[in-house]
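Hey everyone, long-time lurker, first post.

I ran two proteins through the pipeline my lab uses and got sequence/structure pairs for each. Pasting them in order. The first:
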Amino acid sequence: MSRFLMRAAARLPLAFLHAAGAILGWAIYGLSPTYRRHLRENLAAAGYREARTRRAAIAHAGKMLAELPALWFRPHAEVAALVREVEGEAEALAARARGEPLLFLTPHLGCFEIASLYAARRMPITVLYRPPKIAWLAPLMREGRERENVRLLPTDLSGVREVFAALKRGEAVGFLPDQVPGEGEGEWVEFFGRSAYTMTLAAKLAERPEHACFLAYGRRLAGGAGYAIALRRLPPALPGEPAARHVNRALEVLIRECPEQYLWGYNRYKRPSNAKDPR
């Protein structure tokens, strides 16, 4: 039944899905005190206290959920065609032409699903993912994300090994760098002024000079008109700056380009079991 409903929703116009998603976002905000608290605390910590940004963030969180059927169950070519403009693509393609492995860091900003699906129309890409806690959603997620040229790998030891193998072959790899890692897979690093348990693997790979590292996100266009993908070359680290803080600082700059589309309600500052916070 869930697959049938998702496929049926995929046929609806993106403008309708985004309009319905805005309503869904407000419903979740109203029904979940925990989500509401996280969203308000995270926005305030980043310096966004005005109601306008908060209202937009609530609506975009719902749009993120409502657009999934279209992204997962429309033909791959139709999904890629939703991308109306791409900024920075030439630099990424030039790096690939030189044989440099591409590392894409895509935070929970805008439509992060569209980035890998668009990239896969141009090159093979390996993406690490964490299976959802909701059991029935896992096969739908795999079916929707595993398109031609997209290889989905779990965030375990075997997946990490495959990531290194893909990079060694000169292929592209994608990460969600602001996803809270499991115990032993991260370190406590500042993110928007607060200590956040941060993935170290992506940061260490980004440090390697042979990798071409880009920050990427898909901005939702108004009225369900589609998406605009932005690619930003990872800027140089500050002198003596740790790798994980380097990535977090770059993500902060990226998110400030489009703060209303960041997933502020995500519990970015949670503490995984046995991961001791040095504070």
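...and the second, right after it:
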Amino acid sequence: MSAYYDPPRFLPCGDMGLSVEFADGIDRSVNDRVQRLFRHFQAKAFPGIVDLNPTYRSLFIQYLPWECSFENLLFLVEQGLKAPGEDHARQAVPVRIPVCYGGIYGPDIDEVAAHHGMTVDQVVRLHAAPEYYVYMIGFTPGFPYLGGLDERLFTPRKKEPRKWVSAGSVGIADRQTGIYSIDSPGGWQLIGKTPLRLFDRELPDPFLLNPGDFLQFVPITEDEFERCSHH
């Protein structure tokens, strides 16, 4: 259980940042409060607010002190915390993420299965069953941190991280599962890969997923992966 901060804590971060912290742990009710304040600031577009970064349990606000003083920012945050919470219109259908599990796309799935005394098919079924919640985007542009992984799949990270993991790789690290959004180093256990692009700088909205989204993994074959990749 998370210990709620009531009222939330205001932590100055240098002379151009403020972190509003809601609790000391991770759970959906905490993240709902983060998302509510995040959406409030998004909707209002206050002068001097240049960036908003929601995390598991806090909202980081970057501001220009010559356009919005620290005192005024605190006032805006306090007003936002008191504002009636608009219920986030939940997606009618979760974002479907096709994944080719195992083989060349999931080189660690046998290791994950062996760690839990399961078959590869059991790992795939357990991983594709939940509806996952996007708590935050971080690590690299578009990388989603997801809640909802079945505890039977909790698996330690690799002892030696890879120097290169291709974009679209789906992995498990301890209690988390996620999708590599760009080519990068990484130490997660790779169990599959999606042909979808999570980050495309050429698009007006470069991110496929956003905090507060829901998603579902859908197993596909290697042939289906190749066909999707060429569209």
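Reply from user beta_strand_b:
Welcome! Quick read of the second one: The chain has five helices and 13 strands. The radius of gyration is 19 Å.
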